[in-house]
């Protein structure tokens, strides 16, 4: 890659640049942010900020024994994600590093295994099936709002909204996918987490040749494990999305109850608010893709075995793309079509490997936000501490504390 003008920090033997990254992140996240600022790239991806200044937009670093090239050129990213899905995917190192957290399901699968799993899960998030979930989402949200209203009437004003969003999104998934309420559903998700851990441990054990290919022992079980492994990560993504949406809306109220506003206009405003929140705090902060064969991206030759590291968070906070107010919450930027979904705006990735549950997540967020603002006004609590951290995805380290005031006292 040096012949193509791509360089980077010098790696250590076996460790690569892991220690450098860990040191930078530890330093940048050691304290809370002074104000509720959305300028979080330097805090969450400090190695990107440092190395891009030293080596340019394209640079190579080593994640242990795996070389990764940072790519921020949106045209090339779109080409990679849409055109080269069949010869790129998750590396062995990525799979090993995440199997104890999210198993070996759709997110980490490649090639035929990925197609097989996607085909199993896809029907639950498509067409009429997806539309049928709206009633469940409304009913579950009503129950949560009733609980909040009761608490407000009893004098409680401050809430850690994440606790309520976790329960709500778990309840919605339980009802839509397993036809169970939250109390029964949480037992299912506990067992699924345990199943993932047991599967990860079992993968280390030796087996007789061919035993994993036994139709009677493997395929039947594999299909069902695949179809449910997805849901715990789906729940976590959904409630984190809602946390950040509520945070930015509580900090800078934009949406008001739809009085005298057409349903179409209100729906558009909700979409803009949700998209802007996803721009500032995307569920996927980075997208790694390893080249399983040689790939040509514009003037760039990607050799087989090189991983491409796409810093979604940095792209979403690029002043070149979004303007000087890039770190401000401004839903109006989504009123125009100046941005390009799948290129400039990729909160759920793009191309064939985009997030299979994104339509579900967006519909859920829109319903919950619309119903919440119809019942309450809310502001950020003085007790809120702004300290975003990355643990697989972006999380508020100390939760999101908001103050609720009923609109119907």
Automatic annotation (TrEMBL):
A Pfam family it matches: p450
Gene3D superfamilies: Cytochrome P450
Tagged with keyword Iron: yes
Entry's family note: Belongs to the cytochrome P450 family.
Family matches, as PANTHER family: CYTOCHROME P450 FAMILY MEMBER, CYTOKININ HYDROXYLASE
Subcellular location: Membrane
Obligatory cofactor(s): heme
GO CC annotations on file: membrane
Bilayer topology annotation: Single-pass membrane protein
UniProt-recorded Gene Ontology molecular function terms: heme binding; iron ion binding; monooxygenase activity; oxidoreductase activity, acting on paired donors, with incorporation or reduction of molecular oxygen
Protein name: Cytokinin hydroxylase
Alphabetical UniProt keywords: Heme, Iron, Membrane, Metal-binding, Monooxygenase, Oxidoreductase, Transmembrane, Transmembrane helix
Residue sites binding heme per the record: 355
Top-rank taxon, per record: Eukaryota
